[in-house]
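Before relying on records like the one below, remember that each one covers exactly one chain. Contacts with other chains, cofactors or solvent are not represented anywhere in the record.
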Amino acid sequence: MPMGMGRYMAHSAGWYGYGWLFELIILALLFFIIYWFVKEAAKKNESAMDILNRRYAAGEISKKDYLALKKDIS
């Protein structure tokens, strides 16, 4: 092997042998982006009753308001 060829071959393997780590990071980011899009799509499919229940459970509205809004929705 010519002098210096070993350095080229090690570098072409990808970050001196750590190319697999870079690929793993890219793959993890890809899965995270897909997960985030699916989660956001699920939020958009919430019904009015789901939103009302969530707001009541979080304490954003009172029981009186909850029952009045529930009656309006039904």
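Helices lie at 5-12, 19-44, 48-57, 63-73.
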